[in-house]
Amino acid sequence: MPLKESIKIILADSQYITSMGLRYLLSQSADLEVVDVVGNRDDLLTSIQSNHPDLVILDYDQPDSFSLEDIPSVIEQCPDTHVLIISSDDAKQNIRQTIHYGIKGFLTKKCREDELHNAIQTILNGGKFFCDRVLNIIMSDFEEEDDKSKAYEQLTDREKEVVQLVADGLTTKQIAKKLYLSPHTVSTHRKNALKKLEISSVPELIKFVIHKELKKL
Predict the structure, then answer these.
(1) Percentage of the chain with pLDDT > 70?
(2) Which of 53, 78, 94, 150 is least surrounded by Cβ atoms within 10 Å, i.e. has the fewest?
(3) Which residue has the higher pLDDT, 10 or 206?
């Protein structure tokens, strides 16, 4: 599916040279428009309210400007806005946490220009994109998920369907409408699936689904 015209992007990076370089790269694509460049959390949240961007490109690893904990605020304030992380941070626990928060794209600042554009297109089309460096970090943490993968195969087709839609970010009401089920029935399927998978939260479920999808690559 092609990207719509004039994709609105906010750059959230307090490093001037980095943000200007990124702005230049994005300006080479006619369908990408950088509507604002912000240097701290408060300005980012204000800009989101004003510009209603399609995408926020964020480096959370900037003390006194942006932090890991800012990600949920951005997602909560504008759930229809996608967030792509571009950061030099390669700490495994932090990358794990961004996935728990629901981030669907993560690049390091060593990534190539083609990876940047591929990430934007993939995310805006509903997919997930992690550069090779981040994939290696994520995959090193996946061995513990093997038992859950076996348990997943024991789910009913309906439970698998509900699991996928929950991981895609749909609410119980949205899933019920999509599958022509009652919200109570959806909740029951979700509860049963989480129990079988021994998963206790939606963020953990999202991480599991990402693992399952990446194993297909």
Answers:
(1) 90
(2) 150
(3) 10
Do 28 and 107 reside in the same domain of the chain? Answer: yes
How many domains does the chain contain in total?
2
101 and 13 share one domain: yes
Q: Are residues 77 and 46 both part of a single domain?
A: yes
Check: CB of residue 207 under 8 Å from CB of residue 99. Answer: yes
Tell me whether residue 87 is in a domain: yes
Which tokens sit at 147? 């038992």
Domain annotation covers residue 35: yes
Torsions phi, psi of 62, nearest 5? -140, 90
DSSP the chain: -PPPSSEEEEEE-S-HHHHHHHHHHHHTSTTEEEEEEE-SHHHHHHHHHHH--SEEEE---BTTTB-TTHHHHHHHH-TTSEEEEEES---HHHHHHHHHHT--EEEETT--HHHHHHHHHHHHTT--EE-HHHHHHHHTT-GGGHHHHHHHTTS-HHHHHHHHHHHTT--HHHHHHHHT--HHHHHHHHHHHHHHHT--SHHHHHHHHHHHHHTT-
For residue 32, the model assigns a pLDDT of: 94
pLDDT digits (tens, 9 = 90+) for 37-66: 999 999 999 999 999 999 999 999 998 899
CA distance 96 to 210: 11
pTM above 0.85, yes or no: no
Specify the residue for token string 């719509």.
4
